Amino acid sequence: MQRHRQRRRRAAMLLEVTGLHVRYGRTHAVKAVDLHVAEGEIVTVLGANGAGKTSLLRALHGAVKPAGGSIRFAGDDLTAQSSAERVTRGMMLVPEGRQIFVSMSVHENLLMGAYLRRDGDWARDLKSVYDRFPNLAERRDMPASVLSGGEQQMLAIGRALVSRPRLVMLDEPSLGLSPLFVNNLFNLIKELNRDGISILLVEQNTAMALEVASRGYVLELGSLVLEGGADALAGNAALAEAYLGDHAAKPEPDAA
Fold first, then answer.
1. Which helix (H) or strand (E) holds 20?
2. Residue 73 pairs with which residues in a beta bridge?
3. What is the pLDDT of residues 155-170, one digit of tens each?
4. Which of 27, 69, 65, 43 is nearest to 222 (CA)?
5. What share of the chain is helix, strand, coil (3-state, %, to 5)?
6. pLDDT (tens digit per residue) in 177-223
7. Residues 177, 35: Cα–Cα separation, whole Å
8. pLDDT of 74-129, one tens digit each?
């Protein structure tokens, strides 16, 4: 794992977030957060429920307007840009709860990932998704509602891949999945990263998140309270007790 990280030390910066604030009325959900993700890096954001992790991702994806700060992607300032513009630039969010269209077929869900593609090469990426997820290929004409929880998560990730992202942001991807499928999921995250996709991972399964990530950030009540290498965070007993605790997602055996 260490040599995996050393290989990326000099990678170009992909995402740069400076002084980001998110407010919902009087609620200050994210407070002056700075973070960055380099090309080819896996970075995790950790914290208890209510720490501001999802609000952070929603701001990065353009679903909510920041109350302050800046978001730069591949050198361009996207702070005021729409979610659609961020997708076309290569930023893709896989939201918590998957948010697939259960009344649509598997194939139709995947086609949604190509909706904003400006090139004509999306069919090759769609085929690549079917090659990567043969279960989806077998069910391509079935409604997404017939998929298990784990298969729905693969569908949500596959939909993101059809957009040909440079950065995939994953919000609690292991939530509600069986232990076997959680292992498969984290193996997939590493595989996508080896294929050149940068990953920003929000996850309550802290042990596995720190296993695949090179670095991590810890949020508490919207504020960044700690950051560092994954090995250092994983070995910090005081951190685990004060900020992380036992917040690993509780798997459901029938959700694979």
1. strand 13-24
2. 15, 76
3. 999 999 999 999 999 9
4. 27
5. 40, 25, 35
6. 888 889 999 999 999 999 999 999 999 888 899 999 999 999 999 99
7. 28
8. 999 999 999 999 999 999 999 987 788 889 999 999 999 888 776 767 888 899 99
How many helices (H) and strands (E) are present in the chain, helices listed first? 11, 10
Q: Report if pTM > 0.90.
A: no
Domains of the chain from N-terminus onward: 1-90+167-176+201-248 (3.40.50.300)
Which alpha helices (DSSP H) does 11-133 contain, by range? Answer: 53-61, 83-89, 106-112, 122-132
SS3 61: helix
pLDDT at site 245: 52
pLDDT class of 243 with cuts at 50, 70, 90: low
Separation between Cα atoms, residue 162 and residue 87, nearest integer Å: 11
pLDDT of residue 10: 58
- Between CA 221 and CA 217 the distance in angstroms is 13
Half-sphere exposure of 233 (CA within 13 A, CB side): 28
- Distances in Å between the alpha carbon of 139 and those of 148, 150, 177, 178, 187? 12, 14, 20, 21, 22
- Residue 217 and residue 187 in contact, taking contact as beta carbons nearer than 8 Å: no
Query: For tokens 């077998």, what's the residue?
Result: 138
CB atoms inside a 10 Å sphere around CB 181: 22
Whose structure tokens read 């591949």?
74
User: Can you give 176-217 as a three-state secondary structure string?
Assistant: CCCHHHHHHHHHHHHHHHHCCCEEEEECCCHHHHHHHCCEEE
Query: Both tokens of residue 246?
Result: 């036992």
Residue listed under structure tokens 């990280």: 5
CB of 33 within 8 A of CB of 69? yes
